[in-house]
Structures are given as structure tokens and as C-alpha cells.
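Q: What residues go here?
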């Protein structure tokens, strides 16, 4: 009995992907703040289910310059589990938005870090709820900001750590304001309530929105002067 041996086909060289088939990556390091934003009450959020930092400020034009008044800041502490945890945090955030009549919501976007499982499901779920509630009440999209984007503007370093953020805030906040935030959190008896870093991050995100608007106005002024010349 004879056996038929099939000849192996020569391996074909891999064809380079065309542009249409190449994996499209999301563009990063782009400024997500609308270029037409000038006057508004802005709420910035550093999302978390254990602690959520927030900051509210009023951005406005005065004498041809953009200015910022810091209105309030703090943290929301999560309680419970599952849906109860997320809905409780969202309810507190909604109350703050209504109290200060917030016009613009800026949220730090969730970035997946390989090897880290903390918050991998809960934080994105919370962000989704915050975005949904905001949109159903205002019919406006929130501004989603990646950490590296605001850190590059506020800290001059897209990979800034906690101490870098705190040092950078010293350029915008007085020493008394920073110490006041620390002292306020130290009043809490529970250890997990004594770290104001989430609040500081939210303040930095708030500042990032203001600095973006300020930069837009300077760019427009340069263009206008160039046209006049």
C-alpha cells in the first residue's frame, strides 16, 4: 500500500497592513477642553469608590482676561458595596452640582494599568453612572481628561506622582490654603479619611481646565495680532 505525501506549501511572507486595516489607536495628549469655553462654573472630579475628590470653581472674563474663583472643594467617601456604593457616591456628587449650579463637568478618565486589579470594574462603572446622570440632567457631555494630559500642563510632567502634584499646586495655591486642606482631613478619626490626595488631584484637574482656556485666549490674541500686522 502506497501512502500519498502532501507537499507543504511554502510559507507566504506576511503582507504589510494597509492603513485601513491597521489597528487604530486612540489619540492621546490632546486637549479635550472646548476651545469656545469662556465663562462657566466648573466641577472637576478625581473618581474613586473609596474616595472621590472634587473641586468647583468659577471661570469668567474680566478686563479682557480670564480669571478663576475657587468656590469649594472636598471628598466624597464611599459606603456600602455594589450598586449601593456607586449610587450613594453619585447622589452626593449630584447634590454638589445642584448646590453650586455647575455648568461644566470634568472627570479624570480611567486608565487601565496591566497588573493592577484595584478598581478595574468599580471605578469605570462609577464614571459611567456619573456621565449618565450628568447627561440626562444637562444634555451635555462631560469633559474626559486622561491623567497624563492634565499632569503635563499642571506639573510639566505627564508621569507626575502625588508629591509632584502637591509641589505643583504650590504655584497656584497659597501655603495657607494647602495646610487648611490637610488640617480639614486630619479632623476625621478614620485613617482612610485623612489623605486629601484625591481632593488635590481634583483641584489640579480644575486648574488644568482654567489653564487651557487661558492658553486658548493667548493663542487667539497672537493670531489676531498677526492678522493686524
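A:
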Amino acid at each position: 500500500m502506497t501512502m500519498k505525501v502532501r507537499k507543504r506549501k511554502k510559507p507566504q511572507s506576511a503582507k504589510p497592513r494597509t492603513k485601513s486595516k491597521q489597528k487604530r489607536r486612540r489619540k492621546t495628549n490632546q486637549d479635550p477642553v472646548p476651545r469656545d469655553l469662556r465663562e462657566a462654573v466648573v466641577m472637576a472630579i478625581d473618581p474613586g469608590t473609596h474616595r472621590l475628590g472634587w473641586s468647583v470653581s468659577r471661570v469668567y472674563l474680566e478686563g479682557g482676561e480670564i480669571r478663576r474663583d475657587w468656590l469649594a472643594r472636598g471628598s466624597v467617601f464611599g459606603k456600602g458595596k455594589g450598586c449601593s456604593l456607586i449610587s450613594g457616591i453619585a447622589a452626593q456628587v449630584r447634590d454638589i452640582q445642584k448646590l453650586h449650579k455647575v455648568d461644566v463637568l470634568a472627570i479624570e478618565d480611567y486608565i487601565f494599568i496591566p497588573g493592577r486589579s484595584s478598581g478595574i470594574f468599580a471605578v469605570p462603572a462609577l464614571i459611567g453612572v456619573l456621565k449618565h446622570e450628568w447627561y440626562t440632567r444637562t444634555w451635555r457631555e462631560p469633559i474626559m481628561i486622561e491623567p497624563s494630559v492634565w499632569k503635563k500642563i499642571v506639573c510639566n510632567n505627564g508621569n507626575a506622582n502625588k508629591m509632584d502634584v502637591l509641589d505643583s499646586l504650590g504655584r497656584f495655591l497659597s501655603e495657607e490654603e494647602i495646610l487648611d486642606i490637610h488640617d480639614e482631613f486630619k479632623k476625621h478619626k478614620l485613617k482612610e479619611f485623612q489623605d486629601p490626595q484625591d481632593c488635590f488631584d481634583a483641584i489640579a484637574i480644575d486648574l488644568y481646565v482654567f489653564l487651557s482656556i487661558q492658553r486658548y485666549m493667548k493663542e487667539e490674541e497672537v493670531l489676531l495680532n498677526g492678522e493686524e500686522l
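A: Context that may help when evaluating the design: Residues 40-220 form a domain with the Nucleotidyltransferase; domain 5 fold (CATH 3.30.420.10). The chain has six helices and five strands.
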